[in-house]
Design brief:
This protein is of the alpha+beta class. The protein has four domains: 93 residues, no CATH class; 146 residues, no CATH class; 84 residues; 68 residues, Homeodomain-like (Arc Repressor Mutant, subunit A), CATH 1.10.10.60. The chain is built from 20 helices and eight strands. The protein is flat.
Length: 470
């Protein structure tokens, strides 16, 4: 038997303003400016230029404020201006400056080589195939096929290999290597020949496996060298760069990028002062032609004029939501950052990592009254400039563990203590994970062996055997 009934469900639908605000909160300062520029281009109602009366022509188009004409039931008017950021029209940002990109540097060096157009094209493709750290992790045969398929260039393994050898002569030394051993050998062969350099080259060439596993006695025995000669050779090897791509700023992107702090924190007379980088948000204005459309349409029955007025009203609504979302973004970011500073006040006063308290998104959500998802959006891709450096907001969030006194301490503090234990150990007899547990216990931290192993991996600290030195 079929039954019919009514079911009432309550659903929450986000308003255009809420959707706009959520999208803007996620954007860091630099992307926000780009988003504003895009909105100015797409919405003819928005205009950032404010003409002065002295510069206006009697016959030319005049910039008209939306408050210049009366409200109508169907066509509301409003004047919007965001003035949270001060009067500066153009921002003066503190940024991480970047230099020439890694790829561009190699291409410039390629331009100085006497190559045919065909060879240049093959070499350029190889440069574009290098990984961020400067390595070529593609086998030559597949590269030959890829050059033919993607670039339409017929080549062979010999030519690709020859062009790779040309690239391997470029700066930084080691670029174009296919593995770590080749990378180090390329660098050591660029050095002036001395006994220690020759020994270092032989170790890398003939005993690389023994070297990486720190079997120093075996190497010394097979090469017939003394401990002092081994140390001298190792000193040369340890000065080599395993990631040659990292020597050039912005090596991880062909396009140079900047990090613009979204917040600036200063310490003035013992008081923490938070500011946000300033930029100009224009007053919402319309050109004379849009004002005329609205004014004429108010008492008109003509269909075309009413349709034009509807279009303008739609654009006005969009502009209103956009500028209001900008204001809400500013308030949300400011409230969240103030809550973080208040929570971590001891750390922000002296910059000592040991004073970083355990803090998760929920803690800040409770202080601000915002949803955890909102806090997550604020924290994502945002940076703060402090007296101690520029940090991602994510840096200040970490879980906590209890120490032997039952107090909760930040995992960051525990990692710092672990790093100090490793730094202070006798490198001839490095501490095992069990010994690190004992050492951490002596320092007042209750940690299990698996926790030590986990944090050691996160800190890129090798196992005890691989930390051993002569």
């Amino acid at each position: 038997m079929l039954k019919q009934g009514l079911e009432l469900k309550q659903t929450q639908k986000l308003s255009p303003l809420q959707i706009q605000t959520i999208k803007l909160i996620e954007l860091p300062t630099q992307e926000l400016e780009q988003r504003i520029r895009k909105e100015l281009e797409e919405n003819p109602v928005l205009d950032e230029s404010v003409a002065k009366e002295s510069e206006e022509s009697e016959d030319g188009p005049r910039e008209v404020s939306l408050s210049d004409y009366k409200e109508d039931d169907s066509i509301p008017s409003y004047k919007l201006r965001v003035n949270n950021y001060g009067k500066d029209e153009r921002p003066q940002y503190n940024t991480f400056s970047v230099k020439q990109s890694f790829t561009q540097s190699l291409m410039d060096q390629l331009g100085f080589r006497n190559l045919t157009e065909h060879q240049h094209s093959v070499a350029a493709f190889i440069i574009g195939s290098l990984d961020d750290d400067g390595y070529l992790r593609r086998d030559i045969s597949s590269l030959v096929d890829d050059i033919a398929f993607r670039a339409g260039i017929e080549t062979d393994e010999k030519e690709v290999t020859d062009m790779l050898h040309v690239i391997q002569e470029f700066e930084p030394a080691g670029v174009g290597a296919r593995d770590l051993r080749e990378c180090l050998l390329l660098q050591i062969r660029n050095m002036k020949h001395t006994p220690e350099v020759d020994n270092a080259e032989k170790i890398l060439k003939d005993y690389f496996s023994e070297f990486t596993n720190k079997h120093f006695q075996k190497i010394m025995s097979r090469m017939g060298i003394s401990e002092s000669e081994m140390k001298a050779a190792m000193s040369k090897i340890l000065k080599l760069n395993p990631s040659p791509g990292g020597q050039i700023d912005d090596s991880y992107n062909d396009q140079a990028q900047q990090i613009v702090p979204d917040f600036v924190l200063t310490l003035e007379d013992g008081e923490l002062k938070l500011t946000m980088p300033r930029f100009s948000i224009p007053e919402l204005r319309v050109n004379k032609k849009y004002a005329n459309i609205l004014l004429e349409a108010a008492n008109s029955s003509e269909r075309e004029k009413r349709e034009a007025a509807t279009f303008v009203k739609k654009k006005l609504d969009s502009a209103k939501w956009f500028v209001e979302a900008i204001k809400q973004r500013h308030n949300t970011l400011e409230s969240t950052m103030k809550a973080i500073i208040d929570y971590q006040k001891e750390y922000f006063t002296d910059g000592d990592e040991a004073h970083l308290k355990p803090m998760v998104l929920k803690d800040i959500a409770e202080k601000t009254g915002f949803d955890i998802s909102t806090i997550s959006r604020v924290v994502n891709s945002k940076y703060i400039e402090t007296p101690f450096g520029i940090y991602s907001l994510k840096y200040f969030f970490s879980e906590g563990l209890e120490n032997q006194d039952g107090e909760e301490v930040s995992t960051r503090e525990i990692k710092k203590a672990l790093q100090e234990c490793v730094d202070a150990e006798d490198k001839h007899r490095p501490l095992t994970d069990d010994q690190l547990v004992e050492e951490m216990n002596r320092r007042g931290y209750k940690v299990a062996r698996r926790t030590i192993a986990k944090y050691r991996d996160q800190l890129n600290i090798p196992k005890a055997r691989l930390r051993k030195e002569l």
